[in-house]
Every structure is written in structure tokens, then in C-alpha cells.
Amino acid sequence: MSLLVYVKANIFSSRHIRQGVYYETVTQPPRTYDLALLFAALADRTRLRLLNLMNGKEVCVCYFVEILGQSQPKISRHLAYLRRAGVVAARREGKWMHYRIVAPSNPSAAKILRETLVVLSDEKAMQADLARFSNACCSPQKLSALEGAPLPVPVEASSANLALNSDSL
Question: Which stretch of DSSP H or E encloses residue 134?
């Protein structure tokens, strides 16, 4: 990655003061993926529950609030943490925010996330969350907080998702 730097300087000579403009290209090394940030993102139960619910789907925040029984600011804070770790992407649609899992740029980080999702799918508490999620998606009219909320949609296979797939493991 390179940056173009603009410098304006006053140049003093024995009799004149002149302004000079210089352009110089500065090359910066590419940013490396922060594995510590990924592990910190995976070290919280709420964030793991969010990842479990998003696996293979794009989900509106209101569903997370309803299913997990947490406040909207807390859910949003955890989703922001996952975004900083590079494992979640967001999309706004009117007043609704939709989140989905994206593969980290680092292949090792992507493998760690994929394996984490596999382990989560076998855990009883995570399966209970998915059952509540399925019930909420099938009949959102039962839950007043979800009135008017867009239904979760499957993430396209062409995008960089990490839905559980036996071929990728």
C-alpha cells in the first residue's frame, strides 16, 4: 500500500523566501491480521451466541435482542466488536441493521472461525438458541418486538460466508 504525501514548505535562501511543494510516495507495509483480536472476540459467550445465530444467514438486530433476551445497546456493542475483529459485516436497510458472518482475510483465522462454528453447532445451549430463532422466524407476529421486522435471509453461497459445509472442513 502506498500513500501520496503532500508537503508545503517555506524555503529560505540568502535573499528570498519561496514556497515549495513536494510530492513523495510513501510505501507502507500491508496490515497483518490480528489473531489476538479474533480470539478476544471468540472469548465471550454472547458473541459466540450471535455467531451461532448468524451462521449462514443475514439477521436483523431485533431478532438477536428477542432471542438472546439482551438489550439492544449490548447486542450492538458485541456486534461492533465482531466487526472490528473482521468476522461480521453489516448492512443497513432503512431503520434495520442486518449482520452476517464474513470470512477473515487471513486463512488461519478463517479456519479458526469455521471450526468454532462447527463446535457451536453441537452445543445444547446453542441449539436451543437456534430453536427459539426458528420459532421467531416462522411466526414473528407472536413476538411484539419483531412486528414489521424483515425476516432473516440465507446468505448467498457466492459471498464469503462460513456456513457449515462438510466440503470446506
Answer: helix 124-138
Q: How many CA atoms lie within 13 A of 92 on its CB side?
A: 2
Q: What is the pLDDT of residues 130-164, one digit of tens each?
A: 999 888 765 544 544 555 666 666 766 434 445 44
Half-sphere exposure of 54 (CA within 13 A, CB side): 29
Whether domain 35-154 has CATH 1.10.10.10: the reply is: yes
- The grid cell for 113 is 472461525
**CA–CA separation, 144 vs 140, rounded Å?**
8
d(CA 89, CA 152): 15
89 phi/psi in degrees, rounded to 5: -120, 150
Taking the model in full, what pTM does it have? 0.68
Question: Phi and psi (nearest 5°) for 135?
Answer: -65, -40
CA distance 47 to 119: 14
Give the pLDDT confidence of 58-92 residue by residue, as tens digits: 998 989 998 999 999 999 999 999 999 999 999 98
